[in-house]
Amino acid sequence: MTMRESPQRSAPSAQQEDRGDVMATGCPSREILRHVTSLWGVLVLVALTENTYRFGALRRTIGGVSERMLAQTLRLLEQDGLVKRTAYDVIPPHVEYSLTPPGREAAAHVAELTDWIERHYETLNSEQTA
């Protein structure tokens, strides 16, 4: 049995105390999970693995995202510490978005998932229609 499966937990180690528990109803890590695994969150993280983008270029890279949804997603991922927003003091305003070190780590994981989905799309799609 793992720690999550065990009905009686032993005293947590120092390392475990620093972790969230996404299985717990009130755990704040669920909000970060929701932001990272949303459609737009995944696509923003994957896009930013390849480049630093200005808002308009990022929007063009991620097909179908509205300005509102992109702005909201970037704001949430920035609050979570995964995306860095750099504003340059020039006219017109120039803002760039890039990944923070934790953002690069999270992006690597979601990129693996998106790559797996792309590689297995036909199989998965045929299972759905069978």
Topology diagram in text:
Blueprint: H1 14-17, H2 29-37, H3 39-50, E1 53-54, H4 55-61, H5 67-79, E2 83-88, E3 94-99, H6 101-129
Antiparallel strand pairs: 1-3, 2-3
Task: Explain what you see.
Mean pLDDT is 88; it is low at 1-11. 57% of the residues lie in helices and 11% in strands. The protein has a three-stranded antiparallel sheet with strand order 1-3-2. A hairpin with a 5-residue loop joins strand 2 (83-88) and strand 3 (94-99). It has helices at 14-17, 29-37, 39-50, 55-61, 67-79, 101-129; strands spanning 53-54, 83-88, 94-99. It is mainly α. The chain starts with 13 loop residues before the first helix and ends with a helix. The chain has six helices and three strands, in the order H-H-H-E-H-H-E-E-H.
Compact description:
With 130 residues, the chain is mainly alpha-helical. Helices cover 57% and strands 11% of the residues. The longest helix is centred in the C-terminal third of the chain and has 29 residues.
